[in-house]
């Protein structure tokens, strides 16, 4: 590539060759300004019509917005320029001309609806706010990976094309696999569990999960990103400690490393959650929800928590909180029941006041109990033999959780819709781009 100066590093007294997009052209008569934008910022290019070559002035000012240009010239101090410097050009080269009929305004002056933004993600991500979300998302994933490595985890990658579902039969996407029925994986659950019995013992994965969710809501995707953790010799409480750390560290690292992005998003004070999140039992939770009067009918032991109930509880608690001690009957087959009370499971959820972020728990590691659990939930243990068989050869007690990456970013940045936290979201209507 030819030499290129990042806009943000252009210094007065030096020469620069910047390459980027035409953000704006301001023609004030005798003088005109071209604002060039690259991923590091924006810079003003000055054209003095009296003293400059007409062809050069025309090259730099007769341009469609969002065209790609390369400008070379001297960088000079100019306190009236937005960044205190400007380029006095000696050449402007148009590298790629843009069609003037832009489907959305990347300068952000004209608001676009979310579907238009998603249809034109490339242009949408030229806007500072949208770009900031994805820079922050990248920082969240970096921080999460680093944290897991610091506690002795190995990063794994598990199959996304599978023979069986794990998270309830109705939410599977079927595919045809060389004439056989197969599915897009809903969760790395069974594979990550198999790894705790391997020589790896403690693992994490950041990868896609596929859910054929029927509902079209601001917090459901049909392809989401799951941050999964699983460790041998852990109980549910230890997994909750890790979960707390992951959520806190993600916020801390964003607060520390993403100052400019947070500023772009309008934060002067970005909140980092406290060290310890309250741990409510399921019984406490239903009692408190019933107490709010948010539901027409009172909840009873064994009921799932409806969205309105969780919203009312979230408003009351006002911070991240765990819900523990769920009825065993509403938790999946792989979650272990409590030793002292088989009706109560070791499963837990972590909720942000707005929504659920995490499910996890200690797992059933005893072969006989595991197989009995499959049967109790109406699942054929034979179909899961690749998984259950390994429990016959020394499977340690273990625990873990799955954390939705988009929900983490969405709640962290108070985004109204989960689709804003994934580049190319999949929902019931949206299959491309
Ligand atoms: P669960 O099904 O609760 O648990 O999923 C874990 C977390 O993943 C996120 N998530 C979603 N995000 C957006 N759209 C969806 N359709 C969607 N589905 C799930 C949520 C949710 O809390 N195997 C267990 C985890 C475990 O026990 O380790 C599981 O998948 O944030």
Structure description:
With 433 residues, the chain is an alpha+beta fold. It has two domains: 7-96, Nucleic acid-binding proteins (OB fold (Dihydrolipoamide Acetyltransferase, E2P), Beta Barrel); 122-278 and 319-421, BirA Bifunctional Protein, domain 2, CATH 3.30.930.10. It has twelve helices and 18 strands. Strands 6-10-11-18-17-16-13-12 form an eight-stranded mixed β-sheet, sandwiched between helices. A five-stranded mixed barrel has the order 1-2-3-5-4. A three-stranded antiparallel β-sheet has the order 7-9-8, with no helix packed on it. Helix 4 crosses helix 6 (236-257). The relative contact order is 0.11. Bound molecules: aspartyl-adenosine-5'-monophosphate. Aspartyl-adenosine-5'-monophosphate (AMO) is lined by residues 167, 187, 189, 211, 213, 220-221, 224, 226, 228, 356-361, 400-402, 404, 406-407.
Q: Summarize this, please?
A:
This protein is α+β, with helices and mostly antiparallel strands. The chain is 28% helix and 27% strand. The two termini are 29 Å apart.
Q: Main attributes?
A:
binds aspartyl-adenosine-5'-monophosphate; single chain; OB fold (Dihydrolipoamide Acetyltransferase, E2P); 18 strands; BirA Bifunctional Protein, domain 2; elongated; 433 residues
Question: What is the count of distinct domains?
Answer: 2
Low-confidence stretches: none
Q: Tell me the number of strands.
A: 18
- Structural class given helices, strands, pairing? alpha+beta
The CATH superfamily of the largest domain is identified as Bira Bifunctional Protein, Domain 2
List the total number of helices: 12
> What is the average of the pLDDT values?
96
Helix and strand sequence:
EEEHEEHHHEEEEHEEHHEHHEEEEEHHEH
Distance between the termini: 29 Å
What percent strand? 25-35%
Q: Major beta sheet, specifics?
A: 8 strands, mixed
Q: Percentage of helical residues? A: 25-40%
> Roughly how many Å is the radius of gyration?
27 Å
Q: Architecture of the largest domain, CATH level 2? A: 2-Layer Sandwich
Please give the order of strands in the largest beta sheet: 6-10-11-18-17-16-13-12
């Amino acid at each position: 590539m030819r030499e290129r100066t990042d806009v943000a590093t252009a210094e007065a007294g030096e020469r620069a060759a910047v390459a980027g997009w035409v953000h704006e052209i301001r023609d004030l008569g005798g003088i005109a300004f071209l604002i060039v934008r690259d991923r590091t910022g924006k810079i003003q290019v000055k054209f003095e019509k009296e003293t400059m070559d007409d062809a050069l002035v025309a090259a730099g000012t007769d341009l469609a917005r969002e065209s790609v240009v390369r400008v070379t010239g001297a960088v000079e101090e100019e306190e009236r320029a937005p960044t205190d410097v400007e380029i006095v050009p000696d050449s402007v080269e148009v590298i790629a001309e843009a069609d003037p009929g832009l489907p959305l305004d990347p300068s952000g002056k004209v608001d676009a609806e979310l579907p238009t933004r998603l249809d034109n993600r490339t242009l949408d991500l030229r806007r500072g706010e949208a770009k900031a979300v994805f820079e922050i998302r990248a920082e969240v994933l970096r921080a999460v990976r680093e944290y897991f490595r610091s506690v002795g985890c190995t990063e794994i990658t598990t199959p996304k094309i599978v023979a069986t579902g794990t998270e309830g039969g109705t939410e599977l996407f079927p595919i045809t696999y060389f004439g056989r029925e197969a599915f897009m994986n809903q969760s790395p659950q069974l594979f990550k569990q198999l790894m705790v019995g391997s020589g790896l013992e403690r693992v994490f994965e950041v990868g896609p999960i596929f859910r054929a969710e029927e509902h079209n809501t601001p917090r459901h995707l049909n392809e989401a990103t799951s941050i999964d953790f699983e460790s041998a010799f852990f109980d549910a409480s230890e997994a909750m400690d890790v979960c707390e750390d992951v959520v806190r560290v993600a916020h801390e690292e964003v607060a520390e490393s993403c100052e400019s992005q947070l500023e772009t998003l309008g934060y002067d004070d970005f909140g980092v959650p406290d060290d310890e999140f309250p741990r409510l039992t399921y019984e406490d939770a239903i009692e408190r929800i019933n107490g709010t009067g948010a539901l027409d009918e009172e909840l009873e032991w064994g009921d799932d928590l409806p969205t309105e109930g969780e919203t009312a509880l979230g408003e009351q608690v006002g911070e991240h909180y765990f819900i523990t001690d769920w009825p065993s009957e509403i938790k999946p087959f792989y979650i272990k029941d409590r030793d002292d009370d088989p009706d109560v499971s070791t499963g837990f959820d972590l909720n942000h006041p707005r929504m659920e972020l995490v499910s996890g728990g200690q797992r059933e590691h005893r072969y006989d109990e595991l197989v009995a659990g499959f049967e109790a939930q109406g699942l054929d243990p034979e179909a899961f033999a690749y998984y259950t068989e390994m429990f016959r050869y020394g499977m340690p007690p273990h625990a873990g959780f799955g954390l939705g990456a988009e929900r983490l970013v969405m709640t962290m940045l108070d985004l109204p819709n989960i689709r804003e936290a994934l580049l190319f979201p999949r929902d019931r209507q949206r299959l491309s781009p």
